[in-house]
Amino acid sequence: MSYDPSNIFAKILNGDLPCHKVYEDDTALVMMDIFPQSRGHTLVIPKAPSRNLIDADPATLSSVMPLVQRVAKAVKAATNAEGIQLAQFNEAPAGQTVFHLHFHLIPAYEGQALAPHGGGKADDGELASLAKDIAANL
Ligand code: AMP
Fold first, then answer.
1. 96: exposed, middle or buried (C-beta count within 10 Å: 0-12, 13-18, 19+)?
2. pTM for the whole structure
3. What CATH superfamily is the domain 8-136?
4. Cα 111 to averaged position of ligand 1 atoms, centre (Å)
5. Could you tell me the residue ranges of all domains in the chain?
6. Which tens digits make up the pLDDT trace of 67-96?
């Protein structure tokens, strides 16, 4: 399947839709997931268009992974989570719902189960505050 430029993350990358931005450079955008599986669920989105891991340019993958690590450390520091889950889904049967490559960083808190993937929307004030705290730890 080919990349569809009308996907929601492409619209956020173009500035046509808002987001709770943590960080942006020439190659990637980092933002809060608005339907978080735990407090501090963050997405790292390479700007280069690809549906997912399968069709991505290897150069995109090698440039984004150091940022994924950097953001994982910042999310952990900002949330005091005991662990961080890295998730990435490829095509609908695997759980992908937005068809522009992205990496989930999901804080894991001792004794707390993760909310389901694609659950309820978080409070905008809380997302804005988390985005600021994570950015401050980058
Ligand atoms: P995936 O299932 O891997 O494609 O993940 C897509 C993620 O994007 C889900 O975790 C959604 O909660 C999240 N999501 C969907 N729409 C938005 C949006 N407008 N802003 C931020 N996150 C979103």
1. middle
2. 0.98
3. HIT-like (3.30.428.10)
4. 25
5. 8-136
6. 999 999 999 999 999 999 999 999 999 999
